[in-house]
Amino acid sequence: MARHKLFPIPLLGQGTAEVESLPSYLLRSAYSHGTSIGILTMVIQKLVADKNPPNYRALGGSSGVETLSRVNRYTLLLRDYLTSLTGQDMSCKPLDFLHCMAYGISSEISGLRWCPECLEEMERLRSPIYFKQLWHMTTIHNCPIHRTPLIRNCWRCDSHQNSFKAAHPTGRCVECGATLFRRKVPLTQNDVRPSWQGISFDLIEIFERAARLDNTEYSYDKTIRFVRSLISPVAIEFHERDIIGRKLNHLFCEFNHKHPMFWRLTSLRRLAYFLNMSLFDLLSANKNGYRLSFPISDISEIPPQLRPRKKVKHNHKKIYQKLLSLLDKQKYPPSLKQLARMTKVSVGYLEYRFPSLVRKVVDEHQSCKHHQYLVRRYRAQTAALRFFIDERYASYNQSRKEAYRVLSKETRLPKWMLKDAIQIAYRTLN
């Protein structure tokens, strides 16, 4: 019998569209081993003794969960490590298929979301609770099974499930421990989306059909030849003066001249819609799936999520003057996100276009936050000392618990700051 260095915990939903995501598996594994995800990944690194490990130090919070749920060098190596250490198949075939056939698939994957109804069914059936990889896809907003909207916050404490502590089992909030089966706002009839209004059925179909594929059954080069063979004859059928014809010709020219490695998932979904075939048939080069039977005559027929986006043009001089004006009017230095929200531009635009101003804004905001922290710290220490030496507090019990009860109502300061100040004052005077 083979001996495994880690518990042989299987990847749930293997071979189906409901395959488990890597963050969910690590959360279950870390909880079973009685440790955190961070320590578990460090132990895995030591067990495999990789001399050239990927950088995992930045993992943590929402960015860490997103990194683990995507396809990159670290997650590919981590899945291989877990396969060898547990003896379980850790591959996610739908994700591998999308990563192989589309460019930049990681931009289509977000952090942890879940369907409370699915988690409740897992609990009722006494099966292990886990988060599906399908729930990480940004284009999927409703559960494919229950048609209810996915959520990302705990109903009790409103926190995101981005902690790596693994202090609670999967299906419970990482912060307060409440079950994730409930919703903060009860569902209404309008929240349940009918199946014919699903905007991501093509992506769900890929998860369903690619889960049963073998890696040798699809080829990127074969898909390139198949797509280009469809482009030329179909483009001729559309008139140049027609708005749809111009859109199609532009799209086909993009696919003809653009390097195939830069075909993004949105462009592939748009092309599959224009060709009236499923996205899976397009990517798997299935000629039987090609069924162009009618031309698209109205731009409104194209789903909003597939319409080409117009490039926003900014007047850089006006925006710069607006930034300076907003900074002069603010009482306290705003953060970069607040400034971008007030100017109605993105943070990335500000960082790219005005780097020197961004550094100044960030430095002033950090300096202001540090100053406010020192002021609150001084208030907490002063209030704690007064409680133990001032005569107006003589009638109260001179204990730390009583000091916190009284001063928390008077000062409204954070709990950790007030308790720390009371502890220092109590030890100093006694």
Quick gist of this model?
The chain is mostly helical and 430 residues long.
Judging from the principal axes of the Cα atoms, what is the shape? Answer: globular
Q: What structural class do you assign from the helix and strand content?
A: mainly alpha
Can you give the helix content as a percent range? Answer: 40-55%
N-to-C order of helices and strands:
HHHHHHHHHHHHHHHHH
Give average pLDDT, whole number.
83
- Radius of gyration equals 28 Å
> What amount of the residues lies in strands?
under 5%
Low-confidence stretches: 235-245, 255-261
Helix run count:
17
Our measurement of the CA-to-CA distance between the termini, rounded to an integer number of angstroms, reads: 63 Å
Total domains, how many? Answer: 3
The biggest sheet, with number of strands, parallel, antiparallel or mixed sense and barrel status, is:
none
Number of E-type strands: 0
Pfam families: TniQ
Protein name: TniQ family protein
